[in-house]
Specification:
The protein is mainly alpha-helical and about 500 residues long. The chain has 24 helices and no strands. Belongs to the major facilitator superfamily. Sugar transporter (TC 2.A.1.1) family.
């Protein structure tokens, strides 16, 4: 997930400008989309471990959970229970492609407004649901809202900030995701003993961040890139002056206009994505999302209360352990905000791979040795599992979490940006859906070995970062082609002269 260069700007460090109060307000409002997403991630696991919720919608799981001799690893294995969590992400997958079109045609701002309205509708259905059908329909509406927000908000953040703050401001989205998870874990803890409607309260509170995004969106402006892309040139110039806090924005404005003219030459951006020169950005964007999910993070975050109950914690203790994990998640994401533009993307990712590999392997070993099909994990070992989960979450939160969103948002040129980013969002949602739908069944079938499965993926990710992921720190977005892709030992073979010829034609047509 996820310093910010202007999306569509070139020349970066020469443009000047500062982080104005208006940019801060815009960033806070847009990042609230992450708060919606994070709250839902955190609330699902807590709600699906509440007896009142299970008894109403999943009576078979409720009976299995309280069966004295039931297998520890399998007591929550139910496809419909997993569908409650995963249906949102399947809907978000489809919605991201629709959101891409709306982003391009109508702007990032209106896409975020639609996201908040759809999310609010889903919240109402979930909180008032009387049967499983309404519950799943509500989740699908939430998913469409998440798909819209995850498409528009990171792009918006990348397009409003100066180049040297691109990483930090974009990661506000992921920081809000972690804050949402923490808030959900705390709320789960306090409402778990409110019978019989504690789960309704937990699901209903999801409407608060959506309401903030909806109302806050009326205070913010559209990005200059989007305005210029839609031929609102004067408004784009005025907005650029407003968000930069200076009047001399001619150089940056001309770069945005030139990028927009080049983008307009591309009539079918999705088709253009399939061309050879777009392959590096597309592969990187999709791979970052797939790998982000195969770290196993959402298996931990969705089902943390369930996981902690599996290793022997009682209901309240498991919810509190989840809240502690959520707090560490927030703190570690702040580390990423501070470090990403100083240390760079690759060092953070590589360090995290090492830390995640060690912790996942250790968790798998402890469970394999000490957690049998029946009975609880010894108290000391259960404590170590919580510590290791915290260390694992810590490393993810300052690396693959925010950078999984940041890197795809800064690597595509304007002509394929919304289309390319929709592939990133949809890939994330597809594999989030697969992990959410499969994890409890994997835990039942593979038992402790499920953690070795994720550790193996972390090893593959490490090799990917070393050999195939270029460093993009402090490089303006529209200079990525020349300064990153054409100089990379592997990806340079996919670069050709088509871009140069197309740019030359545009310059001749526009006089720039």
């Amino acid at each position: 997930m996820p310093a910010i260069a202007v999306s569509g700007g070139g020349g970066g460090d020469d443009f000047g400008g500062k982080v104005t109060f208006h940019v801060i307000i815009c960033a806070i409002v847009a990042a609230t989309g992450g708060l919606m997403f994070g709250y839902d991630i955190g609330i699902s696991g807590g709600v699906t471990s509440m007896d009142d919720f299970l008894e109403k919608f999943f009576p078979d799981v409720f009976e299995k959970k309280h069966h004295a001799v039931e297998n520890n690893y399998c007591k929550y294995d139910n496809q419909f229970l997993q569908l409650f969590t995963s249906s949102l992400y399947l809907a978000a997958l489809v919605a991201s492609f629709v959101a891409s079109k709306i982003c391009s045609k109508y702007g990032r701002k209106i896409t975020m407004q639609l996201a908040s309205i759809l999310f609010l509708a889903g919240v109402l259905l979930n909180a008032l649901a009387s049967n499983l059908f309404l519950l799943i329909i509500g989740r699908i509406l939430l998913g469409i809202g998440v798909g819209f927000a995850n498409q528009a908000a990171p792009l918006f953040l990348s397009e409003i900030a100066p180049v040297k703050y691109r990483g930090a401001l974009n990661i506000l989205f992921q920081l809000n995701v972690t804050i949402g998870i923490l808030a959900a874990n705390i709320i789960n803890y306090f409402v778990a003993n409110i019978h019989p409607h504690g789960w309704r309260i937990a699901l209903g509170i999801a409407g608060i961040p959506a309401l903030i995004l909806c109302l806050g969106s009326f205070l913010i402006t559209e990005t200059p890139t989007s305005l210029i892309e839609r031929q609102k040139l004067t408004e784009g110039m005025n907005t650029l002056k407003k968000i930069r806090g200076v009047d001399n924005v001619d150089a940056e404005y001309q770069e945005l206009v030139r990028a927009s003219e080049m983008a307009r030459q591309v009539k079918h951006p999705f088709r253009n994505l399939m061309k050879r020169r777009s392959r590096p950005q597309l592969v990187i964007a999709i791979a970052m999302q797939v790998f982000q999910q195969f770290t196993g993070i959402n298996a931990i975050m969705f089902y943390a209360p369930v996981l902690f109950q599996t290793v022997g914690f009682k209901n309240d203790a498991s919810l509190m352990s989840s809240a502690i994990v959520g707090g560490i998640n927030v703190g570690s994401t702040i580390v990423s905000v501070i470090a990403v533009d100083k240390i760079g993307r690759k060092p953070l990712l590589l360090e995290a791979c090492i830390q995640m590999f060690i912790t996942q392997t250790a968790i798998g070993y402890i469970l394999m040795e000490h957690l049998k099909s029946t009975g609880d994990l010894p108290k000391g070992n259960a404590g170590w599992v919580v510590v290791l989960v915290c260390l694992y979450v810590m490393s993810f939160a300052w690396s693959w979490g925010p950078l999984g969103w940041l890197i795809p948002s800064e690597t595509f040129p304007l002509e394929t940006r919304t289309a390319g980013y929709s592939f990133a969002v949809s890939s994330n949602m597809l594999f989030t859906f697969l992990i959410a739908q499969a994890f409890l069944s994997m835990l039942c079938t593979m038992r402790a070995a499920v953690f070795f499965f994720f550790a193996a993926w972390v090893f593959i990710m490490c090799l990917f970062v070393i050999f195939l992921l270029p460093e993009t720190k402090n490089i303006p977005i529209d200079e990525m082609m020349d300064r990153v892709w054409k100089k990379h030992w592997f990806w340079k073979r996919f670069m050709d002269d088509d871009d140069a010829r197309r740019a030359s034609k545009v310059e001749m047509a526009t006089g720039h």
